[in-house]
Amino acid sequence: MSLRGVKIVGVGHHAPAHVVTNVDLEQWLDTSDEWITTRTGMKRRHWASPDEATSDLALAAAQGALRYANLRPTDIDCFIVCTVTPDYYFPATACLVAARLGAKDKPAFDISIACSGFIYGLTVASGLVRSGVYPRVMLIGAETLSKILNKADRSTAILFGDGAGAVILETSEENSFLSSELGSDASRPEMLYVRSSGSRHPIDHAALDESLNLIHMQGREVFKSAVTKMISATDKALAKARLNKSDVTFLIPHQANKRIIDAAAHYLEVPSDKVVTNIHEYGNTSAASIPIALSETVHAGKIKPGNVIVFVAFGGGLSWGAVAWRWAA
Ligand code: UT7
User: Fold this and answer.
1) Residues designated as active site
2) With CB atoms counted within 10 Å of each terminal CB, which end of the chain scores lower, N or C?
3) Is 165:12 a contact under the CB 8 Å cutoff?
4) Do 159 and 29 form a contact (C-beta atoms < 8 A)?
């Protein structure tokens, strides 16, 4: 099969209006703005209101991407939402978004791989476009992590936020997708997981009493793996694309911790003005963090045709991945 090219023709993002600052968190947690800022780089995060769900954020981001690309919902051939906070177990959040956009009868499915969602999604969506199976794909990363946060646990409550980012990929003469490197290791799922909710430990009263239906993380362990795996995934993605570190124009990493981002950027020798960070504004939005950062950077007019972008992420699973991408005109 001869592969076609793929490029991004639309970007959009959206976050809930409600902002929670570090100072707000100080009101009910034994924490401080100073601790959160120096340990994570976070200052604010957006949390959905009780009546706001993941598909609401995804829908707004998708509408933004359609406006940017000057396309109608019915022009999209397939919808993918990367999320670990779907509206329901089923139907898939992507089906809800497609229906609400009025894209009747279109294929739609979710990808559940936590913070690596957008990297896996970009790999899958690029494959669908390049193979000609679906020439135009809407790929969305969307989360409402505030809904599964233990707001009394200072080690996780400060970290996560809500938001959505969307990209539209389509067939192109040029090819933006240069390489992908993905990985996973679930030998210790308890490092970062929601213990009770699925078939292993369905939610019951005991689980609710112990908050086992909410995010649990062994932060220090995850931190170490994140740095190692993000660097090795980037190395492998660059090697597959026959690129050197010096070819990288922009690094757009998952926004889990500013210290993790700095370590990856230091290794890659990418100067700080080419490392895209918005962690101060959104915190960790899991699968949404990279597409939000990409959308903001594109809207700011910073990315030029020919620029090489490395997208890299690490998260629950454990899972990780990097994609090398050459921005097309
Ligand atoms: O997106 C998925 C991937 N996620 C990540 O990559 C997150 C990776 N982990 C991290 O980013 C960091 O480990 C954290 C930000 C979660 C924690 O930072 P740390 O520097 O690893 O701190 P720590 O867990 O080693 O805790 C150091 C101290 C502890 O106190 P003691 O035992 O030294 O007395 C904690 O109890 O900081 C304490 N602590 C806090 N203090 C004030 C933990 N959370 C807080 C807090 N405010 N919010």
Assistant:
1) 115, 254, 284
2) N
3) yes
4) no
Instruction: Report whether residue 284 contacts ligand 1, using a CB cutoff of 6 Å.
Output: yes
Is 37 touching ligand 1 by the criterion CB < 6 Å? Answer: no
Task: Name the segment(s) of the chain with CATH classification 3.40.47.10.
Answer: 5-175, 178-326
CATH of domain 5-175: 3.40.47.10
Tell me the best of 21, 257, 279 to mutate to test the pocket of ligand 1, counting ligand atoms within 8 Å of each CB and taking the most. Answer: 257
Angle 93-101/54-69 helices, nearest 10 degrees? 50
Ligand 1 atom with the smallest distance to the CA of 154 is 48
* CB-ligand 1 contact for 22 (6 Å cutoff): no
Burial label for 202, CB within 10 Å (0-12, 13-18, 19+), is: exposed
Q: So what's the architecture of 178-326 in CATH?
A: 3-Layer(aba) Sandwich (3.40)
- Report the separation in Å between the CA atom of 322 and the middle of ligand 1, taken as the mean of its atom positions: 25
pLDDT higher than 90, residue 61: yes
The pair of structure tokens assigned to 201 is 């430990």
pLDDT for the residue 319: 98
pLDDT at 268 over 90: no
Atom of ligand 1 nearest to the CA of 157: 48
| AA letter at 203 | I
Q: What global pTM score does this model have?
A: 0.97
The pair of three-digit structure tokens given for residue 174, joined into one six-digit string: 């040029």
pLDDT digits (tens, 9 = 90+) for 75-115: 999 999 999 999 999 999 999 999 999 998 999 999 999 99
Q: How many CB atoms lie within 10 A of CB 11?
A: 23
Q: With a 6 A CB cut-off, is 256 part of the ligand 1 pocket?
A: yes
Q: What angle do CA 283, 288, 291 make, to 5 degrees?
A: 110
Ligand 1 atom at shortest distance from the alpha carbon of 315: 2
> How distant, in Å, are the alpha carbons of 62, 127, 131, 163, 232 from that of 2?
30, 12, 8, 37, 30
pLDDT (0 to 100) of residue 110: 98
